[in-house]
Amino acid sequence: MGITAVSTAYPTLAQAGLALASRSDLAKAKQHYRSGVRHYKRGKFQEAITKFQQSYDLSHRSELLYNIGVCYRYLKNYGEAVRFFKRYLLETPFIKDKDKLETKDNIWFAERQLKKPEKQSADAETPEPGIREDVTFEESENGGRPSRRLPRWSPFAAAGALWALGGLSYFIANGKQNKHKQLVDELIRQGRIEEHAGSLRFADAKSMRLYKGDLNSTDREREIWRDVAIGSLIGGAIAAGVGGFLLWKDAHGNPVKLEPKIGSQTGLLIEYQF
Known about the structure:
The chain is mainly α.
């Protein structure tokens, strides 16, 4: 199983499907959306953001992310505007060329304002954007399929599971080591093993034939469980690092999509935008 990171401004993955929403959730999402549109037309952009976000939380319609980005642009919160415009592009792989170009224009404008807010003359010709007023909330849009996208806390859950496995493996390895030591001590007490020049040797061929297999078996099991413990701890550290990277990218306006891939190349696909 591998982990592949793909950074792109043009998502190439087919969208995994909208998160499964009940009919009542979609109805509530539609109400919040309509309320957000009313607030937007009245110039109440912060209230519109709240309603669009509530609608998105229930329906996961990506057009609502674009609407939130537009509202943040009018509030001159360009950092949040960029973040939501990029999330919209990431979650809408089959976006129309016109909408893609319009969104990229908005990102360009907002990033320019973040870098050089004093230069307004060249931006005066940039048309002011409008929100998407054609968002639909039909239950059949996703064909009843739940989303395959993993929540952002998934890497941390994996890290916790691996660390727990590592701790358990270390406990088992320690038990195998104690068992091996007890067997050696008992064979020494019986005179079947002798210490010679800092090493152990069987006293006779019969003792070797009877007990060498047991000693090798316990020693081999101890090594296996120790390797499992070390591998689990390292894997947990990697998973935690991946989780921290995803949160950091998302916090800096580079949204991340985490999606399991099953098939000829099984693994975990991480896709984000610069």
